[in-house]
């Protein structure tokens, strides 16, 4: 378990202090995939670097398996880091080492005998599907292949945790899918707890169990992905879930309703039924649905009729048919 | 076609000896300068304010020290360092003393070369190594130096050629080699053919160092797609 308590980080620069993180509280449970989403500059990369103390927090605590990392000696910290793998947007492979020796690197640092390290590296390269590229150098690989090597390398010391800092942001959509599938597989088969930092909502709803939305150095919202996705409470979460949609919803005045699909009844043609039953003139302002673990989650924002009778009828119909909705302001 | 003096020194084998002395007076100081310059370069890189282990005061002192030695023209530094050479090798004459002065002039130069090569290593790679629990010492030995290897080799080629130039200048105060032959037999006795032969030989030596060095740098660099 990773617990972050009252964490703050301030950078002292020549142009004054910059607050990157303020009063962050987070708990990442064992075995889950935890997403941290935010726009660039929100502080998410700093946050993930505070988990393995690549950045030194200004205040607060970071507890990994109950141990406060800030009280560890340098030697103990280096040892603990071997239990927290990390992958990056830029892959960060050693360019002068071939694939096999890249994966062997953390094992060399951990003092694993050479032959044993090599066997482990081969095993991991098989897991990530690159067993045939052992002798290749990073420059000869594609982005997706490089990230696979980086994943193998991060897992070499059998860490319990894996931090992913925008790990798919430099990849094309197809490659992103395959890397996300690999991360999910690692989480399920090896039981590695994964922390995913991203600015893309699709990464979160594809693999994460829970998500924290970070905005202006603070956590704006946190909870299970299905909940945050269907009922975003904060402005920033709404913005991230449907980029660009905010304006179209906000510019239309009048009564608006957000219909929520909670994974159970989304196969029903709710809107069509409502229009037919109530003779209400509604229009769709925004909509998004996604498949999360086989169930449909999502929402539709409807502009409701101005006519009060039509409006009442529609709301009554929604209540009667047990639809989940929320009045938008 | 050549002057009498040229035939005389050629038949006496002086040119051939001069070639070897030039090579020897270049390679020995280069090797020693690297033995001293690599730790200095590493220290400059590591203690930098953005380095692995910032120590601003030490970095500043070292930097000023290196700058002082680098800003003095070699010909002046060389004569100024003769007493130091006497202190170290017991004489201020001959090649032994020349090697000392060459090393004093070259080591700070090498330190800067090494520093700039190490600073080229991608910060992300260093961060990844830190995330894997690598100590600073091992980041230097297992990441910085191996990753900077092609650049370090290119730097070594440039340094060697610079030191070769210095070693020819050392002829003015008694160093041997092609530089000395050019000055004593060519310049002082007004025999341009001797100067030209020495010059061409030096150009050939530089070309060989340059080509072989760059070939090694290219061969070791794994960033090139093959």
Task: Provide an overview of this structure.
The complex is a heterodimer of chains A (329) and B (226). Chain A has 329 residues and is an alpha/beta fold. Chain A has two domains: 2-232, Rossmann fold (3-Layer(aba) Sandwich), CATH 3.40.50.300; 242-328, Alpha-Beta Plaits (2-Layer Sandwich), CATH 3.30.70.260. Chain A contains twelve helices and 14 strands. Chain A has helices at 44-51, 74-81, 99-109, 114-127, 143-155, 173-190, 201-207, 225-230, 235-241, 245-251, 270-278, 308-320, and strands at residues 2-13, 16-28, 33-37, 59-64, 67-68, 84-88, 161-165, 193-198, 210-215, 218-224, 256-262, 283-292, 295-303, 324-328. In chain A, the strands form three sheets. In chain A, strands 6-7-8-3-9-10 form a six-stranded mixed β-sheet, with helices on both faces. In chain A, strands 2-1-4-5 form a four-stranded antiparallel β-sheet, covered by helices on one side. In chain A, a hairpin with a 2-residue loop joins strand 1 (2-13) and strand 2. The two termini of chain A are 39 Å apart. The relative contact order of chain A is 0.12. By secondary structure, chain B is mainly alpha-helical. Chain B has one domain (4-220): MetI-like fold, CATH 1.10.3720.10. Chain B has ten helices and no strands. Chain B has helices at residues 4-11, 14-46, 56-71, 74-80, 82-89, 94-119, 123-131, 136-169, 178-187, 192-220. In chain B, helix 2 packs across helix 6, helix 7 packs antiparallel against helix 8 (136-169) and helix 8 runs antiparallel to helix 10. Chain B is elongated, with a radius of gyration of 21 Å. In chain B, 40% of the residues are buried. The mean pLDDT of chain B is 93. The chains are: A alpha/beta (329), B mainly alpha (226). Chains A and B meet through helix 2, strand 6, helix 3 and helix 5 of A and helix 7 and helix 8 of B.
């Amino acid at each position: 378990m990773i617990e972050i308590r009252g964490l703050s980080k301030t950078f002292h620069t020549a142009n004054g202090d910059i607050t990157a993180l303020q009063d962050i509280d987070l708990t990442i449970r064992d075995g889950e995939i935890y997403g941290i989403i935010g726009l660039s500059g929100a502080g998410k990369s700093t946050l993930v670097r505070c988990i393995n103390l690549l950045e030194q927090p200004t205040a607060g605590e970071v507890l990994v398996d109950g141990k406060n990392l800030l009280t560890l000696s340098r030697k103990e910290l280096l040892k603990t880091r071997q239990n927290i793998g990390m992958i990056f947007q830029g892959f960060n492979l050693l360019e002068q080492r071939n694939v096999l020796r890249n994966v062997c690197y953390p094992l060399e640092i951990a003092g694993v005998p050479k032959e044993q390290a090599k066997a482990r590296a081969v095993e991991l390269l098989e897991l990530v599907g690159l067993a045939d590229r052992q002798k290749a150098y990073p420059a000869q690989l594609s982005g997706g292949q490089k990230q696979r090597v980086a994943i193998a390398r991060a897992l070499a010391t059998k860490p319990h945790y894996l931090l992913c800092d925008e790990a798919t942001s430099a990849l094309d959509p197809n490659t992103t899918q395959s890397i996300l599938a690999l991360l999910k597989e690692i989480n399920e088969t090896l039981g590695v707890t994964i922390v995913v930092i991203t600015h893309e909502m699709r990464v979160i709803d594809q693999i994460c169990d829970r998500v924290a939305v970070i905005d202006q150095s603070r956590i704006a919202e946190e909870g299970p992905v299905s909940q945050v996705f269907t009922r975003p409470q904060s402005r920033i979460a709404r913005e991230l879930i449907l980029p660009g949609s905010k304006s179209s919803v906000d510019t239309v005045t009048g009564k608006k309703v957000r219909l929520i699909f909670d994974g159970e009844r989304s196969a029903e043609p709710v809107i069509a039924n409502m229009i037919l039953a109530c003779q209400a003139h509604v229009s769709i302002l925004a909509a998004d649905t996604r498949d999360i673990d086989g169930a449909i989650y999502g929402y539709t924002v409807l502009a409701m009729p101005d006519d009060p009778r039509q409006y009442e009828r529609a709301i009554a119909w929604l209540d009667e048919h047990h639809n989940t909705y929320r009045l938008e302001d | 076609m050549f002057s009498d003096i040229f035939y005389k020194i050629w038949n006496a084998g002086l040119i051939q000896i001069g070639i070897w002395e030039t090579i020897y007076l270049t390679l020995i100081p280069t090797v020693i300068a690297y033995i001293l310059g690599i730790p200095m370069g590493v220290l400059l890189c590591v203690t930098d304010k953005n380095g692995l282990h910032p120590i601003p005061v030490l970095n500043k002192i070292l930097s000023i020290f290196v700058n002082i030695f680098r800003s003095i023209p070699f010909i002046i530094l060389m004569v100024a360092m003769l007493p130091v050479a006497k202190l170290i090798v017991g004489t201020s004459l001959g090649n032994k003393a020349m090697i000392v002065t060459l090393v004093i002039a070259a080591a700070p130069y090498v330190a800067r070369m090494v520093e700039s090569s190490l600073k080229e290593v991608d910060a992300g790679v260093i961060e990844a190594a830190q995330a894997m629990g690598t100590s600073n010492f091992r980041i230097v030995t297992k990441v910085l130096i191996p990753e900077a290897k092609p650049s370090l080799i290119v730097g070594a080629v440039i340094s060697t050629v610079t030191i070769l130039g210095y070693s020819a200048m050392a002829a003015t105060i008694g160093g041997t080699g092609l530089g000395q032959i050019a000055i004593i037999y060519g310049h002082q006795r007004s025999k341009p053919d001797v100067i030209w032969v020495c010059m061409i030989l030096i150009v050939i030596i530089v070309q060989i160092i340059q080509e072989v060095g760059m070939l090694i740098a290219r061969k070791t660099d794994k960033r090139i797609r093959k």
